[in-house]
Amino acid sequence: MALGTWVDFGRLDDLGQLDTAAHRIDARAKAFTTLAFIVTVMSFARHEVSALTPYVLYPITLMSLGRIPAGYLFRKVLVAAPFALAIAIFNPCFDRQPAAAIGTFTISGGWLSFASIMVRFALTVSAALVLVACTGMHRLCAGLEWLGLPRVFAMQLLFVHRYLFVIAAEGARMMRSLQLRAASPYRLSLHVYGALVGSLLLRSMDRAGRIYGAMLARGFDGNIRVLNRQAWRWSDAAFAAGWCLFFVVARMWNLADAVGRLLPTGGAS
Amino acid sequence: MNTPALAVRDLSFAYPDGTEALRRVSFQIPRGAAVALVGANGAGKSTLLLHLNGYLMPRHGEVSIANTTLTPATASIVRRAVGMVFQDPDDQLFMPTVFEDVAFGPLHAGLPPADVERAATDALQRVGMLHLRARPPHKLSAGEKRAVAIATALAMAPDVLVLDEPTSNLDPRGRRRLIDLLRSFDHSRIIATHDLELVVEVCTHVLVLDGGQIVAEGPVAVILNDEPLMLAHGLERPHILRHHHPH
Fold first, then answer.
1. In chain A, what residues touch B88 (CB-CB under 8 Å)?
2. Among A30, A153, A187, B243, which has the highest number of CB atoms less than 10 A from its own CB?
């Protein structure tokens, strides 16, 4: 299934099991820092683009420490891009006031806010994906719960993640049987697709019931328990504090602008 | 008298659509015995197994493990005593790594971390799968998945092991390994299966289920050799009992 290969959620789980410097950082420290990152990035004014660029350091650092392949992450961000595009695409139509100029070329406020939304989207989505890839969903949910996320939400997150694989596997099997029997699965009527989706729902529910049964059979009582819960170390605190300090500094001063001024040919804006 | 490891008395069950799946089923499993549950498709085997650890709660009749009668209040105690191995290992293995999956039961039983590690390691060693401890379960072969699924049950140190079609989808070598493994256990075992040769090799007693009722029970050699009985309930006399020659 092309989309399945493209999305490939299973790889995210495999990456979460690696043992690297990034994976060894406490899940709580990473979750807290990523949350601070997202809040800071979203707090910028709507036309801001250049001040956001230093923030790319956070996902890139975590990605290289965690040995997360950049190409894989890029594809994942692309999968989600249409959603951000749908939100940002009308900005250039509604806001045509000139807001910046590069030489004789004038850029409208709409295009700036469009760029700003897309940059924020790329930053926050890649940071969240790197967080999952460097932590693993199970540890991440336990960490979030420890940070104060109500247990019911942590459980929902864990189960959504778990059953995503279940539904994807059921869907892939159904598509395969469809492809085996239909001359062209893309020319089937809406009626057939309706039946397929209904059947997928019922099959997934059955399977989810069986998995839940297996969890109950082994004593699951609604509490997430993690073996080897990481002990909080000074390096975890330093990781969170260091990055938060960087986020605050980059929020107060436009670092990209400052670096630009330092360069001999800089200072154009 | 020795208390049976598992006793089912007068158990009846009907699905919400009215289909009667079990009708007044009664039997006992002596401690340490391996008992086969055989019957045609739809005979009620899986429904019966789901009652043994409280996934389905008995509404008519009762199930007791050692001296504990299964009720909603005792379900957690009973689940620790009954190790369940499902027909499809993909339903059973849900954690990101083999080790975490095997450790799930002991961890949720509230054991201290050192004991959880030991229980999971011992169980994986028991089924010969310790070398796969860091692998994601969905990437294993069918035989490996089955062995790990059994380890998840063993790690809880159950009194009774309940296995649903343990040899389905296994290649001959995987099946042979599994049969040897099942023979090596000293737990009380109840094995629902269509693999009658496995029954001959592993079990001492057999229960024949048809239409939700136990229609025959007794020693394996007696029941499985009774050709009219076997044919009448959608089964057949196994090949291994027909010809006593080495293959």
1. 210
2. A30
